[in-house]
Amino acid sequence: MNKSIILHIVGWILSVEAAFMLLPLICAVIYQEKSGFAFLITMGIGLLIGLPLVIYKPKSKLFFAKEGLVSVGLGWIAMSSLGALPFTISGEIPNYVDALFEIISGFTTTGSSILKDIEALSYCMLFWRSFTHWIGGMGILVFVLAILPMSGGERMHIMRAESPGPSIEKLVPRMRTTAKILYSIYLGMTLLQIILFLIGGMPLFDALTITFGTAGTGGLAIKNDSMLSYSPYLQTVTTVFMFLFGVNFNIYYLILFRKIKTALRSEELRAYVLIVLTAIILISFNLGGFKGFFSSIHHAAFQVSSIITTTGYASVDFNTWPTFSKSILVFIMFIGACAGSTGGGLKVSRIVMLFKALMKELSFLIHKRSVKVLKFDGNKIEHETLRSVNVFFACYMFIFAISVILVSLDNYDFTSSFTAVAATLNNIGPGLEVVGPLGNFSDFSYFSKFVMMFDMLVGRLEIFPILILFSPATWKK
């Protein structure tokens, strides 16, 4: 394994992260907050470690899939370890384990929090906490790909390891150009949401931080009641953009280049829209008496968009909803958003492929001699793709089951333990009961927090970039 190139990439990540900390530092200057000094110290540490690794040129530039997976896994761990320091250095989250939980939740766009009083944090810390969503949503390595001088094949290994979904393809022949296109779309949608928030009278600081959480489908709020206190207009804008950021960014590329018919033929997009509409209708009827039917539709649409895209914002305390509505929310927690979006979960494309494989198997049991070719978006689903989907699902269920058992050692009720793991593994944020939309994860033991930190990283990085770090074969020469 080419360790020098891996360290070189990690150096880039730490250096870019240190540069990103200029924004919360500026925020501290604007609001005259002394806690901003923590970012200066952390930037110094990041550059002290990162710049030598960037300056040192690897002797060999050989780079394969293994190096790509390890680079992503180690890169995200290093990024989280550095990103937690401002909270601890400033004393606003004095316990480093809690600070690490909070920042991993931010970078992985999970939105689970250990904070009992969110509004007690300084503006600069709230800004950094939300900005990590925006960084982690598209992926810091996708950003690095746009500036790191590497050849296309090498870039593809990194992008496949960090991008959510069963497959990742180049939008254009040059991988660097693909990364720039993705970030341009991401930035454009972010700016549009900020503008619509400002039109609705939202303060600039709130508009920035809430948009970062929406764009990254993260959900770390800046108020203790999440988004309950914002106006229906601002909640509606958030609903629309949560839904939009849950769509595969390839769809926006096709629309941008006037290939609208091709975009609308996407099976994943059609399935995603169908699932969202069905869930909204079912919950709306179940909540019929919730302050009127239109109010029920409004809050159902908000929470369905929030949960299926794994954003995690709340417009209402859905812990008080009927069991049927809460069951639907838990169900769509596992489905997640589209592949190639900023959302988490299993991904709609995988669910569609697994459903088609099930139908094929049932057909085969009835008609033994039948030959049915599985297709997705008009293309044949290759055996390798289906195998990887099945392996991913098996690993996912194994990790989920083991995590629930381990977290249950804290002796909370089953619903709290189950949904806490579901919320962290699927990068959603809130669960039910103890970890509901107005609750938090502060009272879990350190052991359970480490289990859930592992789940957050595994969920965001699609399992294998983290698991491969624990394989002895990875480190053999």
Question: What is the number of helices?
Answer: 22
Tally of DSSP β-strands: 2
* Strand ordering within the main sheet: 1-2
In whole angstroms, how far apart are the ends? 6 Å
Structural class call reads: mainly alpha
Mean pLDDT: 87
SSE order, as H and E? HHHHHHHHHHHHHHHHHHEEHHHH
Shape: globular
Biggest sheet details: 2 strands, antiparallel
Radius of gyration computed on alpha carbons: 22 Å
Low-confidence stretches: none
Tell me what the structure shows.
- This protein has 477 residues and is mainly α.
- Helix content is 64%, strand content 1%.
- It has helices at 3-20, 22-30, 37-55, 65-83, 85-90, 96-107, 123-138, 140-145, 152-162, 175-199, 204-215, 232-245, 249-256, 260-264, 267-286, 293-308, 323-335, 348-366, 383-407, 414-425, 446-460, 464-467, and strands at 375-376, 379-380.
- The protein has a two-stranded antiparallel sheet with strand order 1-2.
- The model has no long low-confidence stretch (mean pLDDT 87).
List the helices and strands and how they pair.
Elements lengths: L2 H18 L1 H9 L6 H19 L9 H19 L1 H6 L5 H12 L15 H16 L1 H6 L6 H11 L12 H25 L4 H12 L16 H14 L3 H8 L3 H5 L2 H20 L6 H16 L14 H13 L12 H19 L8 E2 L2 E2 L2 H25 L6 H12 L20 H15 L3 H4 L10
Protein name: TrkH family potassium uptake protein
Subcellular location: Cell inner membrane
GO cellular component, one term: plasma membrane
